[in-house]
Protein 1
Amino acid sequence: MSYVQFPDERSLDFVAIGRLCIDLNANEIHRPMEETMTFTKYVGGSPANITIGMSRLGLKTSFIGKIADDQMGRFIHSYLQRNNIDTSNVVTDHTGAVTGLAFTEIKSPTDCSILMYRDNAADLKLTPEEVQEELIARTKVLLISGTALAESPSREAVFQALYYAKKHGAVIVFDLDYRPYTWKSAEETSAYYNLAAEKCDMILGTREEFDMMERFEQNPEHSDQVTAAKWFDYSAKIVIIKHGKDGSIAYTRDGTGHKAKSYPAKVVKTFGAGDSYAAGFLYGVMQGWTLEKSMEFGSAAACIVISSHSCSDAMPTADQVNDYITRCERGEITAS
Amino acid sequence: MSYVQFPDERSLDFVAIGRLCIDLNANEIHRPMEETMTFTKYVGGSPANITIGMSRLGLKTSFIGKIADDQMGRFIHSYLQRNNIDTSNVVTDHTGAVTGLAFTEIKSPTDCSILMYRDNAADLKLTPEEVQEELIARTKVLLISGTALAESPSREAVFQALYYAKKHGAVIVFDLDYRPYTWKSAEETSAYYNLAAEKCDMILGTREEFDMMERFEQNPEHSDQVTAAKWFDYSAKIVIIKHGKDGSIAYTRDGTGHKAKSYPAKVVKTFGAGDSYAAGFLYGVMQGWTLEKSMEFGSAAACIVISSHSCSDAMPTADQVNDYITRCERGEITAS
Amino acid sequence: MSYVQFPDERSLDFVAIGRLCIDLNANEIHRPMEETMTFTKYVGGSPANITIGMSRLGLKTSFIGKIADDQMGRFIHSYLQRNNIDTSNVVTDHTGAVTGLAFTEIKSPTDCSILMYRDNAADLKLTPEEVQEELIARTKVLLISGTALAESPSREAVFQALYYAKKHGAVIVFDLDYRPYTWKSAEETSAYYNLAAEKCDMILGTREEFDMMERFEQNPEHSDQVTAAKWFDYSAKIVIIKHGKDGSIAYTRDGTGHKAKSYPAKVVKTFGAGDSYAAGFLYGVMQGWTLEKSMEFGSAAACIVISSHSCSDAMPTADQVNDYITRCERGEITAS
Amino acid sequence: MSYVQFPDERSLDFVAIGRLCIDLNANEIHRPMEETMTFTKYVGGSPANITIGMSRLGLKTSFIGKIADDQMGRFIHSYLQRNNIDTSNVVTDHTGAVTGLAFTEIKSPTDCSILMYRDNAADLKLTPEEVQEELIARTKVLLISGTALAESPSREAVFQALYYAKKHGAVIVFDLDYRPYTWKSAEETSAYYNLAAEKCDMILGTREEFDMMERFEQNPEHSDQVTAAKWFDYSAKIVIIKHGKDGSIAYTRDGTGHKAKSYPAKVVKTFGAGDSYAAGFLYGVMQGWTLEKSMEFGSAAACIVISSHSCSDAMPTADQVNDYITRCERGEITAS
């Protein structure tokens, strides 16, 4: 059964809007960052990672974003192009903004943290006028990411993109991706997350992210059913609520909660798990697979990424994901 | 025929949220403000004026807003109370904000302008947490005003109020009241005006205000029908588009455009015309009158205000409006 | 004996730099401002008032400042011109700044307060490049005022003016005029007040203002002698410390503290006392009078202003001051 | 002959105030940064580098500064301690500020650039109240750096430190270190550089930096003599003006310009040359050496640093500098 209907005959499968930045991953790991001496540079940012993932999986992709007019910005631009992502709507800032940074600290596979540089970040300078209606008009899916709502004018650019996506019938996916450090207050965050989510066909987030959005509401039990039902009253067809180790559940309008099995992995770090899961899952849904099969495919993609040093650069092809699943089924891969 | 259904049995008829400020009206008029030596102080701000108007017309009213912790703020508070407006949700700022000011310049009845002080204005400091759900739950109508969307946190407070009004079934009225000086850009303005308007049952504005909201859309002829149809696709039941001297048209979902006759007035200044019209018109609609009769009542109320020195203080009672209409019909009043 | 030597043969006697704003004085007095309904408009701002005072006393004056591009700014400009003050260095802002306002509240002759509007004030937008070296090169005296140090770029403009005054040998007078509301912190205030005061020949302020400047120093007894001695180590020749009702003392490098008798007045309000005192005193010093006689002249000028409704507009001519002194000596004037 | 007299019997030789940050040096060099994939982390910031240099040379040092409450801040703190620099006045920020970053790009030994992250930098949050008078009271030398003047409250903290240094007789050294990106305007920069320089005993800068400070003055020939003479009218005893490849000249009050020979080096990059030169030169002057010998020592120290990958970490000991000079004199080192 198909829960979401994608428009036919579009020249693009997938467009994302939002954060484009640089990850600086610790080379010497299993220690606090104070003792890390060298870092390796990768393209990062949740919507960028998902788009790279979708492109590796063979879909036709494009990105709507803004990069700094510096060496970091030019690196991002060329990396997207090398990954077959259309950059015709990747705009260069000319106000002196910088590229957002994320330094990773990997103390152990389960104790990872990030040191962010988000002041004056170029990606948050995208304006509504820079969003190309024509691009959104020819995609099947638009993915928005919560971090792009954190500041003006990027916030208004996202609402502009949502307006175009609604107008042209693209399926809208909202990856909540809530990062407190760029927001002024929880009230402000909640206000704009809710306004955006009302317009979305699929919403993916953790239980904590949905709790944040419900701060003015009545859901004292933090019930997934209450949460999902709220969004089905607006535009949502699928609401995925992630419960960390307990796995994710995809809720649909028929009241069903769909779960899928997971795979073992030799975990290096947890960064990138959500982005690779999102890419794998959305790929499956767009192929017309069942939600369960799509979720399994997402899980396997995530296993590949968390076994690697990077997020973006480790995004797998469909063959790599299928191969991983096969090897898991054969018992060749066990948890670390 | 009734175009809007108001909820029954609420303890309040009308609640407005937004700007509360001070008008300083020139005493020596018919000259540039440079030559005006004395000014008289009145309560001002479009939603405040409308609420005063509704209260004078006999409705049960309340206001949601924020005032400075100074003499101007205390004057506003006591004036609202003297006008029988509930002030339980009028919050006092404690950050050092000031009361917004509007100095009026009246060079001639048709050449009026305003000098605004809106930096660090207390009314724009209202937060979402300060908006009382319980108050909105017991009103028939919530009126929002565009100027309250101009800045955070007032902007988020308005969206919070809209959420509560939707939840509790209040009829929502949007008085566009667009004032460029408090906004950063036309794109930002357009984004939030549209997000708010989607949720409203009645929208009142000038043709130019609707044009501003359509900057990313296709309405090259500035067609009222195209404009109204857009909002009927969301929540609107009545869209009033004002064409200055050519009068206002109230569009309804059945495709009709309603017009009403106007009345003569001895015009002192044009300030306050829109606010008194809105109060008179809404009063009529809430009485179950036809749109035409409601619009006439609004026009007569406006005539009374523009014949006076102040806006808020000149808001008429129902008897005064009826008396004005009667005198006009008898030919006792002619245009200045 | 002459404590300060003024340069000969300059085409201007007196130039001030800094605040230029509007006073809105309550017409209905002896009540809280909440109950005041009308206000009268005057030019205000301490350095502006002093300059008006100096011009009324017959000196050749000019002003360095910035006005808003609106009706209030144009009123200020024309008022200065009508008072024979050169306005060739009064610049008009084009960034949308507003004119600073001061609403006065006169509850009783001894209970007066001010409600200030200083956000986005045009006078604080003056830049160093706008200060005309040529103008300062041809004045005997430059007066600076503490409020102009409160924000960039006005702060840097004052230091630029000080540099020019030093270079061209003008006598520099510092009227401390400390107003907490425009400053971010007491540390910041103290830093710039001290840097400016080091370069000044005459410093006038209250005991509390000098205390604020000494927050990182050792003067636990708040000793005037310690305070004055500090500044004599820099450039100062005369330090006037005001002790409210106990009168002012002018300290000189020879270790003397000069006091003068005061005059009775029928006090309406206390605003403007300091500005008229400064004008009268400086006038006397520039005439070569003793400090004592200069201080008496300042006191009499102050009496005239505090007996009137306005500050700027009440600044007396030399004849008026002399007449006041004569009448006091005849016993024709007694305290209210 | 001794141009500067250092106070006797202080428990510290050298204290610096200002920028403390992180250098991220490209590991793969001789290419644009776009193609650099890994970076190595070092402590950076001109005054930090000079202090590390002074400590390596055997002096008793301390630092006045502010670090972020994160892994980068803690790395800086421990690095200073490991280098025997007293950190009792290194304060930790608690406002969410980040550590300033400098990514280096080394295209060739003569084509080097820096990509700076200075938004919300912790070092610029130092307040006047955090500067310990007691620490400055017991040092022979206080070094200030221009970048710390770029923003409040760090700017006021520097002026506070200057006040304490004057009060307690420390020799004050000003390393101009002008970096345009943290300043709002050239006028603002010039204003504060001049106010600080007036109070300094030694001033070191490039010809371009002195030109920036003279933007409101008459030195159309960019004459070093005019520049030096200006500062001798204030507090300066030695003014060092750097002319890039043409070498540096140390001007003294007797009108002499002192030059020194330079040494060859196998240049990796030019970063750090000025900081190591300053440390070596100041060390010499504090030993009572001639200016010429001190300048040579500084040059040799600079040669060692520019032959290495890092700035701070390459700062030499006195033995290393002497050894370098000996080897140069033996002809064992030639230019790259």
Protein 2
Amino acid sequence: MPKFKAAIIGGGSIADKNHIPALKNLSDLVDIVAVCSRDGSKARALADQHGIPHAFADAAEMYRTCQPNVVINCTPNTLHYPFTMQALENNCHVLCEKPPALHAHQAREMADLAAQKGLILAYNLQLRQTSEWELLMRCKTNGQLGDIYHIKANFLRRRGIPGWGYFTNREMQGGGALMDLGVHVLDLALCALDYAVPANILANTYDFIGKTGGKGLMGSWDPQKFEVEDACMAYLSFPNKASIMLSASFALNTKADIDRNLEVFGTQGGAKLFPFSLYTEMAGELADVHFSYLEDVDIQLKNTAAFLDACLGKPSNVCTAVQGAILQEVVERIYASAER
Amino acid sequence: MPKFKAAIIGGGSIADKNHIPALKNLSDLVDIVAVCSRDGSKARALADQHGIPHAFADAAEMYRTCQPNVVINCTPNTLHYPFTMQALENNCHVLCEKPPALHAHQAREMADLAAQKGLILAYNLQLRQTSEWELLMRCKTNGQLGDIYHIKANFLRRRGIPGWGYFTNREMQGGGALMDLGVHVLDLALCALDYAVPANILANTYDFIGKTGGKGLMGSWDPQKFEVEDACMAYLSFPNKASIMLSASFALNTKADIDRNLEVFGTQGGAKLFPFSLYTEMAGELADVHFSYLEDVDIQLKNTAAFLDACLGKPSNVCTAVQGAILQEVVERIYASAER
Amino acid sequence: MPKFKAAIIGGGSIADKNHIPALKNLSDLVDIVAVCSRDGSKARALADQHGIPHAFADAAEMYRTCQPNVVINCTPNTLHYPFTMQALENNCHVLCEKPPALHAHQAREMADLAAQKGLILAYNLQLRQTSEWELLMRCKTNGQLGDIYHIKANFLRRRGIPGWGYFTNREMQGGGALMDLGVHVLDLALCALDYAVPANILANTYDFIGKTGGKGLMGSWDPQKFEVEDACMAYLSFPNKASIMLSASFALNTKADIDRNLEVFGTQGGAKLFPFSLYTEMAGELADVHFSYLEDVDIQLKNTAAFLDACLGKPSNVCTAVQGAILQEVVERIYASAER
Amino acid sequence: MPKFKAAIIGGGSIADKNHIPALKNLSDLVDIVAVCSRDGSKARALADQHGIPHAFADAAEMYRTCQPNVVINCTPNTLHYPFTMQALENNCHVLCEKPPALHAHQAREMADLAAQKGLILAYNLQLRQTSEWELLMRCKTNGQLGDIYHIKANFLRRRGIPGWGYFTNREMQGGGALMDLGVHVLDLALCALDYAVPANILANTYDFIGKTGGKGLMGSWDPQKFEVEDACMAYLSFPNKASIMLSASFALNTKADIDRNLEVFGTQGGAKLFPFSLYTEMAGELADVHFSYLEDVDIQLKNTAAFLDACLGKPSNVCTAVQGAILQEVVERIYASAER
Amino acid sequence: MPKFKAAIIGGGSIADKNHIPALKNLSDLVDIVAVCSRDGSKARALADQHGIPHAFADAAEMYRTCQPNVVINCTPNTLHYPFTMQALENNCHVLCEKPPALHAHQAREMADLAAQKGLILAYNLQLRQTSEWELLMRCKTNGQLGDIYHIKANFLRRRGIPGWGYFTNREMQGGGALMDLGVHVLDLALCALDYAVPANILANTYDFIGKTGGKGLMGSWDPQKFEVEDACMAYLSFPNKASIMLSASFALNTKADIDRNLEVFGTQGGAKLFPFSLYTEMAGELADVHFSYLEDVDIQLKNTAAFLDACLGKPSNVCTAVQGAILQEVVERIYASAER
Amino acid sequence: MPKFKAAIIGGGSIADKNHIPALKNLSDLVDIVAVCSRDGSKARALADQHGIPHAFADAAEMYRTCQPNVVINCTPNTLHYPFTMQALENNCHVLCEKPPALHAHQAREMADLAAQKGLILAYNLQLRQTSEWELLMRCKTNGQLGDIYHIKANFLRRRGIPGWGYFTNREMQGGGALMDLGVHVLDLALCALDYAVPANILANTYDFIGKTGGKGLMGSWDPQKFEVEDACMAYLSFPNKASIMLSASFALNTKADIDRNLEVFGTQGGAKLFPFSLYTEMAGELADVHFSYLEDVDIQLKNTAAFLDACLGKPSNVCTAVQGAILQEVVERIYASAER
């Protein structure tokens, strides 16, 4: 069968370091035909650097000229919606950066259009590709966890407010620690509960450190321009009584530089994701199972491959358009609870 | 001034191992004049063993005979209310075991009667006496934490359903992991927020492991008679936007045998209780402060002493009747949310 | 049913510290009626110390006077055979110290007489009562190990030649490290292979350090009187191709003070005994299973109880007379190979 | 003196990564004049890549054309014998990959021909070049170990069946874990005993995991085509009563990914190879000696240099033709015992 | 030979806990005949408690009545001189607590009188009895250290100003950290240099923390009454160019609660005392030797026994009168340098 | 403002690896115009390799031709004085390698000439640029240490006599471990005391290992040509009673390969430099403060930048000419004391 023709929308570092290398590694399946960025010179430079034939400042022109059937949307959050809609309308499968959009209704429209067009829309939530997550899913399937009823999901940075880009700009990003970090572990937690929709949500957001300033471990930020939450705490309760405690922060007075983890508690066993451990009973005794030889994988490469598998109609564990719409809705409800 | 005359109500192990030794250590302040237990022979045996003059099966008779002015109420949860009320009516200061009562309205009545009588009613929440908690309170007072806005409070046992007593009996205990374990760390968390009353609570309770059975690290329990929650997860949000994540379990598929801890996050610093660590900025750098030489204390002795200080009108950090009423109300609202 | 009447033969420290306390702990099942030692005053002292009614220097007199139905034989190795035979002839069940005897033919005779009399003869190989060994047996039964095909059994001391008793005296002990230490782990290894009889054995014994002298970690020994092996290395191959590597030493230039362990390798999993770990595959990955909460048990108490269970016709994991005969035969063949 | 002229026989990865780089590092002593591989194009590519003047598919032609005086035989096991014999007949010194050959009689013929021709034949057993082994030999020479009487030699992989090449093919390799891994530590153990010939050998081989399949840490293998042993256990007893316990595995349910080590027990001291530790007595106390500053060396480079030293008549610690013949004989006797 | 008759002078805790138990353990060599304390009731109580026949408030009377031939002087520092002189004049061997005296001339007089009388005068510097120190001396004798040319001697406490006794009283103690702690490690360091007399000394003393106050790990002290040094730093240079760096503190802002150690540097090897390690070269490599099995000893018992050995004319490693005089002289010169 | 024009004097590895890369990294401030080495071909090669326009064998010619205004003096110790004087006379600011000179009077002359000419003369003591040192200085400024009264300064190598260059040549280097290593930590210690001049110094130097030979961890050295001290121990006492214990070695029988550290003891707190820890009291308890996130910096780059800052009249923490003169004087007094 013919190879996919992929266009990259967005000329930033995530295109350069993540998506383009992944696609080039999958060159038996896909060719990159164009890069498109509002700043045409950035598009040009990126195309030259990676040997991509075309560069555009205008997406419409790109569609006319190159007729891609796959689009990688790696624009800022605020542009996820318009550029994904345009791509779908141009009959392209889309792999869109996270979060899905700024608003829940946008993510739903995106999912609806993809369904209507019979196209794949997927989100780049790559933690699903870690060996640890895949092992957790296998343990779940094998029954080693039983029914999962509680999850603690953390993505905490002590002083990790990014000192570059739009990360502290509410208009461009739509939010802070939850939008940027929390969605990763929230997506995993929802997966563990089969993407059920929460019945109730109670949450709070904070911005004390962001607005005060301090030592930065990811560059310096300007407290004057800090418009988003530096921490978000949320509790989600589900119709079947399962629950999630979610903690996300750009800045928090906590021990570790970074604490990104998931703890899952089920009727037969519990598990911690990093390093992967299983807590259960075996031969009548309490058993702690460690897996020392999990493979180190390139999670971007695997997620891009999983997206292409989906486009080819194969089984795939990529985050779907429908899941993305639920995820965005949950994010919106968390912010709503925090502002009540 | 004359010594206090103390009566012990309840003839179980907590009287024998905790309260009587503590009072005997404070013999310059207090004499134990009587032990009272519905099972008169238990009262007799305890009195003989500890050289206490009187033993009673009937409390009313005890009050008539001995006229104590201090009562230690170490009966099962369901009897905290009636025996405390009776003691107050007999003009005794009361140190009552936790939880305050089975229902919020009981704890409020108890507080009201104590106030009306001008008596001290206090609860035996001894974690307040740990060196770590006192240090946390000093750090809070000194401003080393700034304003506290989030707390994670855990009291988790992996397989610690007590295989004796009434711990799994709903009628006698009123609940399970929350009533027995959770109240300890919930009390500390509420203290850290100056015992504010939560605006919103969302919670869930579980009983999967308790009702299924398995390895017991605190004796064996009978799954058929397991009537309470083996785990309780709750989120509390306060009028000033502060929040508490509370996790308590008798049984959970988690790593450690026991995980009893508090993490406190403030605008100037964060702290973990056991071992006590402070996470903050110092001289422009991120600083982790450890305190290796904290004194190991007898927390029961210190709590009993703190109660007597209160009776003497001195400053005291013991849990007050009013705080106990709030604590009981929060417990009741957590259960209510879990049953919604 | 009536209690057993037990007589102790041998007045040494193992009677005093191990067997008598265990029997006293089982006083609902058994009464100790007599102590017998060639040194009558030792017998007398031991009886007085433990409140045992009778003491004898002559065993025949003891049988006449007290008519016990249970005998604990805790004499030196060389007396295991005659006193056990006498006890069986006096219609007593016998728990005999290890090793079973000095020679294989003795152990076989002892087993034959017990069978003929319908009496229980068991050996005091208490490592079978450790929580770790019981867990290993459960794992074997559950299939978590598959078929076991190789075992490494070690009981190594770096400088642990006992500086007291008969441990270095060939006539009294029959041998050194193998007779005293090796039999413990050899018994476990043979159990793991269902007490199959080896097809071939190749072995060596050494006495370099014992005959030279040096630092003693268990008292000082006299190199001039060192008549036994200080180390024994053996390889056992079984009809089904399974194999055991056995290493035992009183003295060896090795790292640890004491290294007493068993590693078991099976088709589905492998296990190490101390601390108990299971090495296997789970959910498609290599898994290391740790059991942090194994109970600490009094292995002498459990072994004595297991012996009494056997006497009562109940299931029991105590080392049987038939197993003891095989064990002694293997020991004899190891020595024979070493002297070839 | 003139430089050696070396020819490489065998065009695989071990030529490319090990032998050719080592020879190039020793360019003041030797020039590589030719590469020879049955697959002429592989020879050509390798020659081009490394700037070697000639490439041949036919060895005879190579000898005629290039007249080398040194040959590196890095062919598959089955070809060690014919190509080494041919090289010796062409008056070349030979460094041959391990194991020496498939059969003991081949290795003896090779040694005989080398002796008759006055040529050096050596085997590439590079562990002899580790700093640890050289230190062990110095300790042995200095008397710090006394007489060595027992050795435990392990080369165990948990799941390390190579998923490439001929490693599971009996015809090409002659065996599995023993042939590929075991010979390395067996060679060291025999060296430690001055390459004495064992008086007795008892051994077993297994192939349960290899024939069943499972997780592979060195690529995937096909259980259907697994024809060799995945584990080999052996005991060697020597005329002077010394003994070796040898354990080698491609796959075994054991803790570590790889456990390659030697423990040596002598009358004055014992030693463990990795990390090097000496266990002995000093100043009347038990002493553990650690050597933290051993040099990290390129063992292939050192072994090739040692071979060239031998060719130049200098002292050398390379494995000699005579040692190789003994080693092969021991391997053959191990397999014979396992098949008895 | 007849047993020694010992009298105890001084009724404090060091008599009660150290010296009397040691003497009682040596009851085959010595009987305690009397206790003498200026506070007669203390003497009486101590005598009764330990079953000692006589108690006195007046030493002269004690000598008349009991005629001891051994005296243990465990009075405060200021009384070491007068009571030791009196004991010698009464023809008693004397074991005197450290430091020898308050002034160098006193210690010299004491040594002179002992010499003149032919009596043993020894000081209770018990660190000489640790297994580690004895091993160091053996290593020195065996030549494993070569010539020792530098020593770092530390006895540092972070906040260890004793909150009881006379420790902060200059008149009674003569000094602080040096007098109480420093002398122990100074004695060892001087021993290591064969008790040579320093050619030059440069030193400083401090009292900042002692006079300011703070957290006390050995009870609370009164900064107002702190009259001695809380830290003393000194450098000693010897005629043969060897040197000692001495650091002693009651209070210092340093890491460990207590750091009591000696590092010795010689031409052939260096050693650290606790835990004992030897740093040297062996077999041409840098070697770190650890001794994991050193015996835990009762250093007071061993020092008392060593004193009695000296009294019996046997070899003994106890600190002699002459060494004590040098030690006191060095202490005096250190204080003199600090006050220059 | 115009860029500086820098000339490099000295063509060794420290020019190549440290100074030239640092200057190139600061190319917005400075151009390298020339390299000058007595060995003209070395100068030429270095210039070519780094793209520097000019190379000279004669410094006078260099000054005439290139007219630099900045000179980096990286010649051997013996040439620090003449080349720095020449550079100052040619009106250049100078960054001179450490130690300042061979003799104290030289360093004073250098400082005097720099002052007279109004030029910057600074020394390349780069440890001042570590994050740890800068943090220590901030703690000192903030009062977290109080008054510093004692410092232990160590720069110890176990076997680190450099096997190259002039390091063991007295004439070229002026000394050994003190001149090469000790000056680094001595400079820091003096800084911590505000570069006070010591009132008294007592010191010793040793050369036992250097003159005997042994294992070398930094190459092999020739004991026959070892003319300097391999170890230097010194004690410095200051007018305000503060003290420094300084230990420096090329070779010493000590534990660690390298031990380079500073411990600082003050009235309010103490600190250890690597890893940076602060020991103090906080909230009434003893507190150990760790700083886990200190930045890893290029200390040469920072020191060169600090030197240029000084040349530009900006604040700078570089070691000044006046400090260098004091440092050299202290070094000279240490050697004088050692030779007394």
